[in-house]
Amino acid sequence: MTIATNCEALIAEIKRFSAELLFLGAPIVDARLEIFELQIQYLLPDDFKYILTRHNKLSLMGIEVCGLDAAYGEGSLDRVYHFETRLAANKAPAHFLPFSPDGFGNHYCLNLSEIKNGLCPVVFWQHDVFYEDPNDAEVCNDSFMNWVEEVMIEWTLNDYNYDGSEK
Predict the structure, then answer these.
(1) What would the pLDDT profile of 95-150 be if each residue is shown by its tens digit?
(2) Hey, is 76 helix, strand or coil?
């Protein structure tokens, strides 16, 4: 299956959840992702670009994927990247793109230096751990698609049904 086919299957699965649990942003119809790539000097993985192009920001039961839009203020992907890689006390390396905050100052990040076949691993960057080597950050998933499947969908289904009722 192609990346696009896998992403479409994930989006269809996410859309099965009740609107009370889910927020899906509007599609990206301009070149802002490509402009962002030029600004950060890294390519984004294909699965991440595909899903953000379809839904610029996602949230399922509080697990969020940042969107790229000035309307999101400091929560916009470009602002989060700027803060976490340039201003934070414990700066993430420039090749880590923080895309999902955990609510405690930590972020799931795409390791943009490891893109292979259009995909890259997801790491968990802890703001209060000073890594001797930033590449020692925990690798959580081998791709953004797998992260969406595990963290957004499976973790939600551990506690809730698609209709929003608790298990």
Answers:
(1) 999 999 999 999 999 999 999 999 999 999 999 998 889 888 999 999 999 999 99
(2) coil
Asked if 124 and 140 touch (Cβ cutoff 8 Å), the reply is yes
Domain range summary for the chain, segments of one domain joined by +: 3-159
**Does the reported pTM lie above 0.85?**
yes
Domain 3-159 is found in CATH 2.40.160.60: no
CA proximity to 112, closest of 33, 6, 27: 33
Residue carrying the six token digits 């809730």: 160
Convert the pLDDT of each residue in 112-127 to its tens digit: 999 999 999 999 999 9
- Which distant-in-sequence residues (6+ apart) come within 8 Å of 36 by Cβ? 44, 68, 77, 78
